[in-house]
Amino acid sequence: MRSVSTPEELRGVYPALFTPLEENDPLGLRNRVDHAKARQMIDDLIALGVSGLVPVGTTGQSPTLSHAQHVDFIRFTVDYVDGRVPVIAGAGSNCTRESIEMIEAIQEACGHLACLCVTGYYNNPPQEGLVRHYETIARETGAKLIIYNIPGRTSSYLEPETLIRLARHPDVIGLKQAVDFRSPGKHRDDTVRVIGEASGDLSVLSGEDDALVDLLELGGSGIITAAGNIPEVAAAFLGVLGAWEAGEAGRARDLQDSVLPLVEGVFLRKNPIPLGAFFNSPLYLPLVTIEETEGGTEALARVMELIETDAPSLKKYHPEA
User: Fold this and answer.
1) Model confidence over 98-123: pLDDT tens digits?
2) What CA–CA distance (Å, rounded) separates 106 from 94?
3) Does 20 fall in a domain?
4) Backbone angles phi and psi of 68, in degrees to 5
5) With the C-alpha atoms ordered 258, 259, 262, 267, is the resulting torsion angle positive or negative?
6) 176 is catalytic
7) Does residue 55 have a cis peptide bond before it, meaning omega lies within 30 degrees of 0?
8) Integer distance in angstroms from the first to the last C-alpha of the chain?
9) Which of 203, 210, 235, 301 fits as disulfide partner to 10, beta carbons 3.0 to 4.6 Å?
10) b or e along 262-288 (b: 16 or more beta carbons within 10 Å of the residue's beta carbon)?
11) What's the domain range around 146?
12) Catalytic residue among 148, 186, 270, 315, which?
């Protein structure tokens, strides 16, 4: 079992694994996890040289997996990866107690993994509550934590003062920053400040799949990516990092731009609905397949076109196409 334990280790390209399902329940309630497909997905990504994998984040259907499935899929990933790359467990909740209990269950099943923990969605705690949330999780579990700041999904925003304060905690090692740091304004200014003032204490990774280069320009360290489930995207992102480290900024941006059609395809609808189409997998309700959404026939056609032209590695998941 491998994980990350320091900010210096938390660098590179980390696909947030999509959890594929079998089509054994037409009601969309109790589909089994498709472990055979997950093995193929994992093997393809590791063969490319990804820095690590993040099972059971939002991309991995964390809101709709049962707690038992949540732990089981992380355990499956750890066992199947077998030390080939680090694994970071998705283990967030808007309830501190629930996060602690989930991390403890993961630790009992898998050992001590670093954990990606989201801010307080729906109950939207104040900044002091967010500080105590992460500090309490760290104290009670001893887990290394990566904070997930995604106000577009949670309506909960971690202010830079809060992040700088949390970065001083030895068990808070990273930040997945899913805000608009490309455009001038508060979110970009806040990101610059956090990277500048928490340097050495906190590794900042992009949570925006179309903006890896933009975060690298600000001093960031990599990306935790939904679109990176697609091998062609993961390969491009690895190329972006290699080009950036070689001082080839223009080539890095060209590589990022080359997969923008696939990135846009992954976000044609709310993530992870399009990934269900890319990997030919159902989803748990209340998510539905892409063809069941408004304009879904055209959206599905776009996904299939992208597989044909930009992501041929996924053709094996669509034998009838």
Assistant:
1) 999 999 999 999 999 999 999 988 89
2) 18
3) yes
4) -65, -45
5) negative
6) yes
7) no
8) 38
9) 203
10) bbebbebbebbbbbbbbbbbbbbeebb
11) 12-231
12) 148
Opening angle at CA 108, ends 104 and 114, nearest 5: 60
Evaluate whether residue 65 is within a structural domain. yes
State if pTM tops 0.85.
yes
* Structure tokens given for 182: 């490309």
Q: Which residue's entry shows tokens 């395809």?
A: 265
> pLDDT tens for residues 20-42?
999 999 888 999 999 999 999 99
User: For residues 87 and 3, is the Cβ–Cβ distance under 8 A?
Assistant: yes
DSSP string spanning 137-186? HHHHH---EEEEE-HHHHS----HHHHHHHHTSTTEEEEEE-S--SSSSH
Residue with tokens 């949330």: 133
Q: Residue 33: which CATH number?
A: 3.20.20.70
Say how far apart CA 177 and CA 214 lie, in whole Å: 12
Alpha helices in the chain (DSSP H): 35-48, 67-81, 96-110, 127-141, 151-154, 160-167, 186-197, 212-218, 231-245, 249-258, 260-266, 273-278, 296-309
Per-residue pLDDT, averaged over 194-207, amounts to: 96
Count of structural domains, the chain? 1
H/E segment holding residue 116? strand 114-118
